[in-house]
Amino acid sequence: MRLAIDGGKPARNAPLPPNYPGAVMMGQEEAAGATEVILSKSPFRYYGPDVQNAVHRFEDTMSAGLGVPYALGVSSCTSALIVALKALGIGYGDKVIVPANTFLATAGAVVCSHAVPVFVDVDDSLNMNPLDLERVWDEDVKAIIAVPILGNPCDMDAIMAFARARGVPVIEDVAQSCGSSYKGRYAGTIGDIGVFSFQMNKIITSGEGGAVVTRDALLFERAVRYHDQGLFRDKERYGLESDEEANGFIGQNYRMSELAGSVLIEQWNKLEGINASTRRNHAAILSVLKASLPGFRSRKVVDEEGYLGSNLGMILPSAETAAAFIRALDAENIGTHLLYGGKPVYRQPQLYEQRTADKNNFPFDYRFRKPVSYKKQPCQAAEDLMARTVYLPVSPLLTSEDIEQITEGIVKVHRALVSEARQ
């Protein structure tokens, strides 16, 4: 069958739904919640003429949904990461292990917390490879950040075993994977502290926003204080006793607004439905591709039940084939992409060159016993796999006709560029 890029008929006549899972599900519920806050003239969570306690209610909803005692709404996932790192006491002179395949904000938050990231390689899941942790370990490492990429849970048993054996905490950066799970436990609730994103293209959204969750009362108090100028305004709500004179410290302002909280209450109520739809659509697409393409390869999944299916990761034979695959599918009106341009995060110039806004490129100026350089990073699997893993966003809005057209287009392009090339 002739490819559309070569003048053939496209598999679809229109682009796929936009890749904004939570936003495309917004409706009157979110509008009513935001209107209630606006009409109360009280968009700040802690005081106003008629505070609606929207952030409070969202935190309680999230806490109950995840089965953790403490949830804190914040202004973004980047701020959530910084809050989590500071709750753990991470700072100047510390290293933090970060996966090579993640968004810049994961490593950037480490730097903004005055620590230095060191990068661990990935495996075929495109997540952190637990077997590579020992390579980057030294006595200056004070935390590990695990990132389940695009709805795919990490191998948390192996990661937690490594961390516990060395006495370091684990942060779960669940920015892209809200609602994913590993062996029956929600991502974000397995490590010492978890962070979430509600930015525009996340599973649920308020445009911007984030959250910190934990089971540890002390970590929670430190997180609350750091996100609110060192204050802990509602200790009584949690039944926690804390002495301001003894426990207060300087913090930042990373507070969530009541407008964001009101939207997120309604978005959280839709989370299960969004994820059920993407799982169903992903399974339908993948089953056809596996049946039709004997050489088809998708990324490894360590827990099928916990996988969201929000993105289908297709591993191609080479970076050149992947680039041609994307171009050909685009002509079929099936939008796909390489994540982060197909490059490990340390290839971003500000990290690669260790540039910051501070004097002497602080905190990279710290003289570690084992110096940190990203110029000769041995994350070979990330360098290889990221450049040839093509992602298809799987919308909760896909119809059976959409799925049929998507699979037809991918099968056609794969046969032309991959299957026939192998013969």
From TrEMBL:
This one is known as DegT/DnrJ/EryC1/StrS family aminotransferase
Enumerate the UniProt keywords alphabetically.
Answer: Aminotransferase, Pyridoxal phosphate, Transferase
Q: Does the keyword Plastid apply?
A: no
Question: Which GO terms label this protein's molecular function in UniProt?
Answer: transaminase activity
PANTHER family referenced in this protein's UniProt entry, alphabetically = DTDP-4-AMINO-4,6-DIDEOXYGALACTOSE TRANSAMINASE, TRANSAMINASE
Task: Give the family from UniProt.
Answer: Belongs to the DegT/DnrJ/EryC1 family.
What species is given as this protein's source?
Cohnella soli
In terms of InterPro entries, this protein maps to: DegT/StrS_aminotransferase, PyrdxlP-dep_Trfase, PyrdxlP-dep_Trfase_major, PyrdxlP-dep_Trfase_small
